[in-house]
Sequence to fold (290 residues):
Amino acid sequence: MSGSLRRAAAALLRWGRGAGGGGFWVPGVRAAGSGAGGGGSAEQLDALVKKDKVVVFLKGTPEQPQCGFSNAVVQILRLHGARDYAAYNVLDDPELRQGIKDYSNWPTIPQVYLNGEFVGGCDILLQMHQNGDLVEELKKLGIHSALLDEKKDQDSK
Amino acid sequence: RLVSGLVYLAGRVCLSQGSAGSGAMGPVEAAIRTKLEQALSPEVLELRNESGGHAVPPGSETHFRVAVVSSRFEGLSPLQRHRLVHTALAEELAGPVHALAIQARTPAQWRENPELDTSPPCLGGSKKTRGTP
Fold:
């Protein structure tokens, strides 16, 4: 069990270093245009953030983030093994970029939504990761954080 | 020649560390300081212009990191704290400020870890609209 987890984690690291697609752990990336319906009306965005349990708005994509703060969000989610998240690239769609800021009344990107609710940006997600809150919030969504297994592995050695 | 060499080095250090209290504070940085002081009466306010590390022209005031320590944050969630900071800086955020990394702590929390974090490295931003927020 722990052996396969280690192999999966190693695969994650390779993917994170830009090894390209075909990795086992690929998040459900939606292009901003097709998923968002081209634009950022409040109703559309409301539907978008509620469509998936974990939704992030980034500059760039998880495979190729174009902003250090957006990348931080991607890396944190990767550490927790959260793979089925929706990621929207605001750089592809200026209406989405402004629309999501108006929707959340939050002036910057990245933005993280859990269970349809705005949680914060990169600083807040990092804080939640560091203090254990993120593991708890993911658990509430039925997502078992990979870090829990790591800890179990270490405890049993 | 030695003096001019030292001044050159000091200038380089200041560029890489942002304003770093060198006295070369731009108007946006000054406004951020004033507004946060007025809104939150902080015990500690550490502000760093990080624009030098991003894909914007030299001398820009677009990317900042701030640590605000205030008892006004007691009992507030991180989201509520950040929103207070955003409200105080609404004008700057609607204007020139493109990125704002926030550490919003109570005095007790700051004492546990009194340091301004560092931001992750820039990954280029939007190449199509380089230089504009």
